Amino acid sequence: MAEKIIRTIGVLTSGGDAPGMNAAIRAVVRTALGKGLKVRGIRRGYSGLLNEEIIDLSARDVSDTIQRGGTILQTARCEEMRTIEGQQKAAAICKKYGIDGLVVIGGDGSFKGAQKLSDYGVNTIGLPGTIDLDIACTEYTIGFDTAVNTAMEAIDKVRDTSTSHERCSIIEVMGRDAGYLALWCGIANGAERILLPEEHDYNEEKIVADIKENRKRGKKHYIIINAEGIGDSMNMAKRIEEETGMETRATILGHMQRGGSPTAKDRVYASIMGAMAVDLLLEGKTNRVVGYKHGEYIDFDINEALAMQKGIPQYQYDIAQQLAL
Known about the structure:
Shape: elongated
Distance between the termini: 59 Å
Number of strands: 11
């Protein structure tokens, strides 16, 4: 049975880091302290929880952190948390340290851990922290805005050199099996092609034919945004160069997209979500995920949130294709 009176709140970041996580941590800490609660930070996600890497947090501990990328609590992935023994141990450690409520900042995998802890009596609230924007219950995830702006600026630079050398450039962005970063960059950077894992039927022969036709019309460069979920950018570049005769280079942006100072949007939205997590716990809620939909901050049952499916909006993809003509 979950504890109804909240005296101490724990906070951890789990899975991949994302810009804005520190803003969320700061908001949790300062909101909770302002309401007379104690706050304990858990280092290195669920792995740190199982290893009892737990510290008290003060308002001073989160000073000058809102502008920093990454997570001051650090993060890790934890296979042990997938086991019943690991979940029971984690719940017992929360009780040992008097943690009545736990705020988990991460993605779907992190929420599954929070869901299990809730089953074992720990009040849990999840905040969507991932640059992939792949959490179905929310239109916004902490870190996406910064990551897409970082990628956009990098692609602009690649376009400059691609134009100068009259090249085809294949630029691979992150996102795991989700194509939101690729779609947004494709539109924002004016790419000729966007390859998404949600659109598996892309035809490389058509891309080759399109490049040849564009060259006949005098086009000097060609930009392809390739999602991580498709990958194979290096080999794709070799094949396209062999078929078209156009010098083709692949650029994999990689983990640079995770870093950097968060944008205003990521700082503000993460701060509001962090404060809301504390308020939800004080209202006696547990096993919830904070989300953002239709201009409002809302919360969902974690079970309901994990069951939701999310796909690329077809209208947005159609617009991206139309604008690339």
